[in-house]
Write a structure and sequence with these properties.
The complex is a heterotrimer of chains A (about 450), B (about 750) and C (about 325). Chain B is built from 32 helices and 8 strands. By secondary structure, chain B is mainly alpha-helical. Chain B is globular. Chain C has about 325 residues and is of the alpha/beta class. The longest helix of chain C has 30 residues. Chain C is elongated and about 100 Å long. Chains in contact: A-B, B-C. Chain C: Belongs to the OST3/OST6 family.
């Protein structure tokens, strides 16, 4: 059965190859069609990856995220727009509804245009906060591009983000040469709430800060935010793994920064930006091409000699030996690959009723792994407590889709004939002996009684 | 002339054969009457299981029939007490289910395909016929007159006190237990009178069956030792008693220990200790008796008897000591609350909350027993006439039965048999006196007047009233009056029983009947409507949270897992539900998530004026929750400062914010013009704006709003709390955090 | 809003406290604690109450607001007062060094009307626990915690549990009930005396014990008592007679599920009469040798029986409206 499953998986994988796991209908929203020339390379990359792009302007009649209550598109890119509100077709509620229907949204902002109110209300719901005046400018007087912004310092040059924290897979800058830099030009920074669904993808360097050029032209008394708190690219992943990305600077996706030379102040020579690859990976992540996990199959069975080898039984007995196995794949651009747990992270199984009775680390199980699916397994003894238990997988990591699996089984008590027999228990021997003695004694007594007939009185004669 | 006529009539019954034939016919008719009078509910409504517990028994029976005995024996029920589950096989009295299972298979074997439901519905009436027969036998052991038994049988057959628990459809343990109770007593008397081991063994056998059927077996376990003890105290120790009791105790205890639910209780708990103690004491007496017969000598014997008394005292003291040291479990709560009547109210709110554990007011006695209640003392007095062992039994039973019945309404059931027997004895003695054709000749007895003195002496120990010899009644007119009077009472009794049965005890509380203005009957079927909805519209393993009263019904009718049910074995779990119901949504939601609750079911009578709804039971939920979390749930908070329990605008904050209140009155005011919302149970006007729910969605509300079902929302997908989410849906923009104070920095 | 009065009183308290006696919380505690050591629970008046509960305080106060005076006819007050004193005594004695920094006090209504007013108290007794506002055990809210006796009389132990719950991680000395020597002596003497008298009087007692009539009477009476709902009275503590709207006495409670003390006795009597007449008809009458007397007896008893039964039915109709059956003369 397992082999059959993995075969089905293979078929599936081939079918959906080379595009996102959640579909290929991509809507690009621009103020007017002319702008798309500026992002031709970025959009071209998307097209080449098999996305079917359709372009709309916020005001257009034909634009609608939903058709007959179903998503009309799988992904949306919103480029910066001059409009104050994005019109009736793109209200905050609609966008949230789109996310709620497991669509993915990538939003690009720019410091020259204020974010539209619809966007701001959406962002607030997601606990992402822009400056009060809906725009701002991030500057850094230490890491700026001395070529293009020698005096304004509003083109930041940042190293690739690297791993978000120990134990989280680095999927955005893996394999990038260390001297690569990302050019973040004239961008807006956001601050994030404390929610675990939010993750800052690209943080500002500790020397950067954000201010409002229009009002705070000469003196910046109270900057909106500064340093690491300032998130230049913010990601949000809903509980159902719908993805939302806020790119602070639309220019990061623009052609003109894809292959220009930039130079840090004091750097020996100008280097080519990492933007193109980075933009591709950000879009790829947002549109579920990378960092997507899938559970292929889960199975648990009795692990006792002489026990039934039924797969996924509904009921176990207390203190049974049980084996649990799960197979997980990770999607990488165009194919499912075996999922490998990042270094110094663990993939855990809970066996819980109300609260976990066991929390075990799942071990990779080479026997059942295939090139495109890694199997993990754990064997343990059920607790001495009957009830309705859950095998629970609750693996939620930044930039990975949430893996939340629950398999319910009942754990029953000992049946009346599953206890050891009395003569096996040494403690019971005295009582068994007692019974024997009583029986024997009674029989003996009866015999005595019967055979000791009263002597017929001969002497009396 | 009339004498001759009566004579002629009497002659018909002279022949032994005719008599016994008549007897059989009469008994059959009685059984028929007993069964027929229990069929009101089936005729009025339909063949349906009643009330609460029967639904569990029915479900268990279906499981037994479907999966066979051994699976039933080891049944682990994972659809109740979620997520704990219940070891059902080991925590129930299997007698009832097994009985109907056997009947079912027997009928199958005879190629009579009967639906198991109908067997369950009709089991109680069928057994009531047997009960009538058993009480006939028991009464015949008491008196020599043949009529007493038949009277007892008909009394037992139609006395409302017994009908209340045995109408068709009330498929509860009592249905068969009462028959077993009476029959066990009959066998005990038989064994005692004949001192026969065979009858003793039979008694033990049926005692075992009784233990397998009903928790009330403890009544027998306490009554038989008591009877024996009284006999001993009266100096009536005899080998008959020895044989009967010893046989019964040894075999009966073994039999009772075969039931998993009972297990080792008979040697561990206090309510079984009297039986054990008397057993030991009887051995001692037997020994002493032997010694006495062997060794002559007055002083020695007196010494022996003192010795026996001493041993008894010591044994009693030892028992008390062992209990206080904890070797023997003290009286379990339910039993203990029978003695210390204030105990349950303080310590075990769950027990106190059950309506049938309330004390009995006198109208209930009259309602259930009508004229028997005043014939009863007369019958007991008759027992004192010739006070044989079996009469002592009746007296003892009468005393204790009436005490228990006074303390707990449901124990009226155990009183009814003895009332019927005693009343029958009184009635029959009346008939025997006044229904005889031959009248005494006055002159015969003038002579006796002289010899009375002698008679007095003879009946010294007897009752004063029976000191003089029986003469008989002279005038036919007197006889006629009395007999007609008695007949009138009997007819009245029959009318009463029928009336009570049809009006009070024949409604299956699952289906409610109400009278329309034009007098026609209107059936209110909300319960089944709602349970059917659950069955058809929810996932097979959707967990339903409700107050425990409805657990069995949900399990039986809707076939969905429940958190708590009427088998209230886990106070903490019930208290958890109570807490969820009586706390604010913010507190309840995590509890419901943790217990994987999918739907919450509440019963609301406000629209119909159905008083048995959850708001009226609410205080019990609060109390039970307070018992476990005295700091989080406080009964006081649910009263207004002036100490009233209100649900209208004046209601206390805790009340208004409690989940139960919100669920009950959610959207209720939509039914009325603004400000007119009326609660017809509490009889109050509700506030203008109804409560709002953010963590629950209204899923279903039955026709008359009696049952309301709410779905527990999933966590918000965007990590907001439900209040916010709803606000956003309504288009209210969330405020960006003000820049006041220190910024909340993100650390990761 | 329930705490509003509490706030008021707290404010008042603080001001008066300041005006009246400029004592530091330390001194106040010391003085009151010495008082507590002297007596069991400190008797308070309006002023001393305000002083004691004035904020800031680094100690906690448990004060019982009581109404002992018989005029208020507060049964529970009188029952609870000794328990409270006992608790206070054993607690204060329990930690002489006052590590729990808890002072037990009592304020009777007659001495502290104003306080009662300021709390807007409708009922007594009520226990207030004032947490410390400063110091190591300081509580977040300075409002007192209120304990109403919703479920009836509380023993010293139960009250102790409640206070101990409110004073965590502090010593809470257990309640020590004094041994009641008198009780012991009395019981022993009674036992001994009873034993001896029994031994002496045995020959005279024995016939009584063995007399069937006695036993018959005893058992019949107890049966009547039980079947007429005496246990219900005992458990539910029902009044002996009721009072109707117009202030007149009613002997029969309306409704199926309740009853009065007198009512049950009356019913028991009726059952008794009915049973007795039945017994007479069954046993006595046929033993009367004289035909005339017998006739009279028969009709007399039959009449009583009939009369009583119809009366019983009529009373039952009072309890259970809509009961259709009746016998003349009480239709």
């Amino acid at each position: 059965m397992r082999s059959l499953l993995s075969f089905a998986v293979l078929v599936l994988a081939t079918v959906v190859s080379a595009i996102s796991t959640t579909g290929d209908r991509l809507l690009v929203v621009l103020d007017d069609a002319a702008e798309q020339a500026g992002y031709s390379k970025f959009l071209g990359d998307l097209k080449s990856r098999g996305f079917k792009l359709s372009f709309e302007t916020p005001k257009s009649e034909s634009l609608s995220l939903f058709h007959l209550g179903e998503r009309a598109y799988d992904h949306v890119i919103l480029f910066p727009s001059k409009l104050k509100g994005l019109g009736p077709k793109l209200t905050g509620q609609l966008l949230l509804q789109f996310l709620n229907a497991d669509g993915n949204i990538l939003v690009a902002l720019g410091s020259d245009t204020a974010a539209s109110t619809a966007l701001v209300s959406l962002l607030t719901e997601l606990d992402i906060h822009l400056p009060a005046e809906r725009t701002g400018l991030v500057v850094d007087h230490f890491n700026y591009d001395s070529v293009s912004a020698p005096d304004k310092h509003d083109v930041l040059l940042l190293p690739p983000p690297g791993s978000h924290r120990p134990g989280v897979k680095d999927i955005f800058s893996a394999g990038a040469p260390s001297d690569q830099v990302i050019a973040f030009a004239r961008g807006v920074g956001a601050t994030l709430g404390a929610g675990e669904l939010l993750t800052p993808l690209l943080r500002a360097p500790s020397t950067a800060y954000s201010y409002d050029p229009s009002t705070q032209a000469e003196t910046v008394d109270d900057p909106f935010a500064a340093g690491e708190q300032l998130s230049l690219i913010s990601t949000f992943q809903s509980r159902t793994s719908a993805r939302f990305t806020l790119v602070g600077s639309a220019e990061l996706l623009a052609d003109k920064w894809f292959d220009t030379e930039v130079q840090k102040p004091g750097a020996a020579k100008a280097v080519k930006t990492f933007n193109r690859e980075f933009a591709k990976r950000v879009a790829g992540w947002t549109f579920q091409e990378i960092g997507v996990l899938r559970v292929n199959w889960i199975e648990h069975h009795l692990n006792e000699v002489g026990g039934s080898n039924e797969t996924n039984p509904k009921i176990y007995r207390i203190k049974n030996e049980v084996t649990y196995a799960i197979s997980v794949s990770e999607y990488a651009w165009d194919a499912w690959t075996a999922f490998s747990v990042p270094p110094n992270d663990v993939f855990q199984l809970e066996f819980s009723m109300l609260s976990p009775f066991h929390r075990l680390t799942l071990q990779p199980d080479a026997a059942h792994s295939t090139p495109d699916a890694a199997a993990f397994t754990a064997s343990f003894k059920l607790p001495d407590q009957h009830g309705i238990f859950n095998f629970k997988i609750n693996y939620k990591r930044p930039f990975f889709t949430n893996v939340e699996e629950k398999n319910t089984v009942s754990v029953r008590h000992m049946a009346h004939d599953e206890w050891p027999r009395s003569f096996v228990i040494s403690g019971a021997w005295p009582w068994i002996a007692g019974i024997g003695a009583t029986v024997a004694g009674w029989l003996g007594f009866c015999a005595l009684w019967m055979y000791s007939a009263p002597v017929s009185g001969k002497k009396t004669q | 002339m009339s004498a001759d006529l009566l004579q002629a009539v009497a002659d018909v019954g002279k022949g032994k054969g005719t008599r016994s034939l008549l007897r059989v016919v009469i008994l059959c008719l009685i059984a028929g009457a007993a069964i027929a009078s229990r069929l009101f509910s089936v005729i009025r409504f339909e063949s349906i299981i009643h009330e609460f517990d029967p639904w569990f028994n029915f479900r268990a029976t279906k499981y037994l029939v479907a999966n066979g005995f051994y699976n039933f024996w080891d049944w682990f029920d994972d659809r109740t007490w979620h997520p704990l589950g219940r070891v059902t096989g080991g925590t129930l009295y299997p007698g009832l289910m097994v009985t109907s299972g056997v009947i079912y298979h027997a009928l199958r074997a005879l190629n009579i395909p009967v639906d198991i439901r109908n067997i369950c519905v009709l089991l109680a009436p069928a057994f009531s016929g047997l009960t009538a027969f058993a009480s006939y036998l028991l009464t015949n052991e008491m008196t020599t007159t043949p009529s007493a038994g038949l009277l007892a049988a008909i009394f037992m057959g139609i006395a409302p006190g017994y009908i209340s628990r045995s109408v068709a459809g009330s498929y509860d343990n009592e249905a068969i237990a009462i028959f077993l109770l009476v029959f066990t007593f009959y066998l005990w008397i038989k064994a005692l009178k004949q001192g026969s081991m065979l009858w003793g063994a039979m008694c033990a056998l049926f005692y075992g069956y009784m233990v397998a059927s009903w928790g009330g077996y403890a009544f027998i376990t306490c009554l038989l030792p008591l009877h024996s003890f009284v006999l001993i105290c009266m100096g009536r120790y005899s080998t008959r008693l020895y044989v009967a009791y010893t046989t019964w105790y040894a075999l009966g205890t073994l039999a009772s220990m075969q039931i998993p639910f009972v297990g080792f209780l008979p040697v561990k708990t206090s309510e079984h200790m009297p039986a054990l103690g008397i057993f030991g004491f009887l051995q001692l007496l037997g020994f002493l008796d032997y010694v006495r017969s062997a060794i002559p000598g007055r002083q020695f014997q007196t010494f022996l008897w003192l010795f026996a008394g001493g041993i008894f005292g010591v044994g009693l003291g030892g028992l008390v000591l062992a209990t206080s040291l904890g070797f023997i479990a003290p009286w379990s709560g339910r039993f203990y609350s029978l003695w210390d009547t204030g105990y349950a109210k303080i310590h075990i709110p769950i027990i106190a909350s059950v309506s049938e554990h309330q004390p009995t007011a006198w109208p209930a006695f009259f309602f259930d027993l009508n004229m028997l209640i005043w014939l009863f003392p007369a019958g007991v007095y008759l027992c004192f006439q010739q006070l044989a062992d079996e009469h002592v039994f009746i007296v003892v039973y009468a005393l204790f039965g009436s005490y228990f019945a006074g303390v707990m309404v449901r124990l009226m059931l155990t009183l009814t048999p003895v009332v019927c027997v005693a009343a029958a004895m009184a009635m029959s003695s009346l008939f025997d006196t006044y229904l005889v054709a031959k009248a005494p000749k006055p002159e015969d007895h003038v002579a006796d007047e002289a010899s009375e003195g002698a008679a007095k002496k003879a009946a010294k120990t007897g009752l004063k009233s029976t000191s003089r010899p029986v003469v008989g009644v002279y005038s036919y007119f007197a006889k006629g009056t009395i007999v007609s009077g008695l007949t009138l009472y009997l007819l009245l009794f029959v009318l009463h029983c029928t009336w009570v049965t049809s009006n009070a005890y024949s409604s299956p509380s699952v289906v409610l009947a109400s009278k329309m203005p034009d007098g026609s009957q209107h059936i209110i079927d909300d319960y089944r409507e709602a349970y059917q909805w659950l069955r058809q519209n929810t996932a097979d393993d959707a967990k339903i949270m409700s107050w425990w009263d409805y657990g069995y019904q949900i399990g039986g009718m809707a076939d969905r897992p429940t958190l708590v049910d009427n088998n209230t074995w886990n106070n903490t779990h019930i208290a958890t539900v109570g807490k969820a119901m009586s706390s604010r949504e913010e507190v309840s939601y995590p509890i419901m998530r943790q217990h994987e609750v999918d739907y919450v079911l509440v019963v609301f009578g406000g629209l119909l004026g159905y008083s048995g709804d959850d708001i009226n039971k609410f205080l019990w939920m609060v109390r039970i929750a307070e018992g476990i979390w005295p700091d989080e749930v406080k009964e006081r908070d649910f009263f207004t400062p002036r100490g009233e329990y209100r649900v209208d605008g004046e209601a206390s904050e805790a009340m208004k914010n409690s989940l139960m209140y919100k669920m009950s009155y959610y959207n209720y005011n939509m039914l009325f013009p603004p400000g007119q919302a009326q609660d017809r149970v509490r009889g109050v006007r509700l506030p203008e704006v109804g409560p709002t729910l953010s963590t629950l969605d209204e899923a279903f509300t039955s026709e008359n709003w009696i049952i309301r079902i709410f779905k527990v929302k999933d966590l918000d997908r965007f990590g907001r709390d439900h209040g916010q989410a709803m606000a956003f849906e309504r288009g209210i923009k969330k405020k960006a955090p003000r820049k006041k104070g220190p910024r909340t920095l993100r650390v990761d | 809003m329930r705490w509003l009065p509490a706030f008021v009183s707290a404010l008042v308290a603080s001001t008066t406290g300041v005006l009246a006696v400029k004592k530091s919380t330390e001194e106040r505690f010391a003085s009151f604690h010495t008082k507590a050591l002297a007596s069991s629970a400190v008797k308070l008046s309006d002023a001393s109450f305000r002083e004691l509960t004035a904020a800031p305080r680094d100690y906690s106060v448990a004060v019982l607001l009581n109404a002992l005076d018989s005029r208020y006819g507060c049964q529970m007050c009188r029952e609870f007062q000794p328990e409270w004193d006992l608790l206070a005594k054993s607690w204060t004695k329990g930690d002489k060094k006052a590590e729990s920094r808890l002072i037990f006090a009592t304020l009777d209504f007659s001495d502290g009307r104003d306080v009662f007013m300021s709390f807007g108290l409708q009922t007594a007794p009520v226990v207030f626990y004032y947490p410390p506002t400063t110091g190591p055990h300081a509580a977040k809210s300075r409002d007192p915690i209120r304990y109403d006796f919703v479920n009836g009389f509380q023993s010293a132990e139960q009250m102790h549990a409640w206070i101990a719950r409110n004073t965590p991680n502090r010593p809470s000395p257990p309640v020590q009930r004094p041994i009641n020597y008198l009780k012991w002596i009395v019981t022993t003497t009674i036992l001994l005396g009873g034993g001896t008298s029994a031994f002496v009087a045995w020959p005279y007692v024995l016939p009584v014990l063995q007399n069937r009539n006695v036993w018959a009477a005893v058992s019949l009476i107890s049966i009547l008592v039980f079947t007429s709902g005496q246990m219900f009275n005992h458990i539910r503590k029902v009044p002996y007679v009721g009072v109707d709207q117009r202030g007149g006495l009613t002997y029969f409670a309306a409704g199926f599920q309740n009853q009065f003390g007198m009512e049950t006795q009356f019913v028991a009597a009726m059952y008794g009469v009915l049973a007795f007449s039945a017994m007479c008809l069954a046993i006595k009458v046929p033993r009367i040798a004289d035909p005339k007397v017998q006739n009279v007896a028969v009709f007399a008893w039959a009449g009583i029986l009939f009369f009583m039964y119809s009366f019983l039915l009529s009373i039952f109709r009072v309890k259970n409206a809509g009961y259709p059956f009746a016998l003349p003369p009480f239709m």
